[in-house]
Fold this protein.
Amino acid sequence: MTSTRRPPVKSCPRRHRRGRIRRSGLIHFLRRSALNSSLRGVQSQADEAHQRANLLVDLRESYQQRYQSERSENILELVMRLFEDPYIDVNTAAEWLDVEYSTANRLIGQLEDDGILEELTGKDRNRFFRASEVFNLTSSSA
């Protein structure tokens, strides 16, 4: 029995006898190169998303530690809900927490004083707030 040995597979395009690259080999090489480039882009985006997710977890834990010892559990619950939706008004907070408007207004005022919420409208009535740190981490391409 004689065994036939196959030549090793090359990763670059095959050449004709005259030194020209075969068209099919070039297309394969270019497709493979484009695929590698695309995969590097996907890897970069995944790394960035992972980093932002870690920053969000760290921020959430710092808020949790900060408000864990508060008398009212409502403020902790409100802060945690801001990670689901960083935009809020007093009526929404009152609904989320199942409390009176005045209680929600007081809690939002405390979070605004603490720098967690920023008021966006500049008005005295129908105010709308944003949790800027949460928003920046979820919307940026940092």
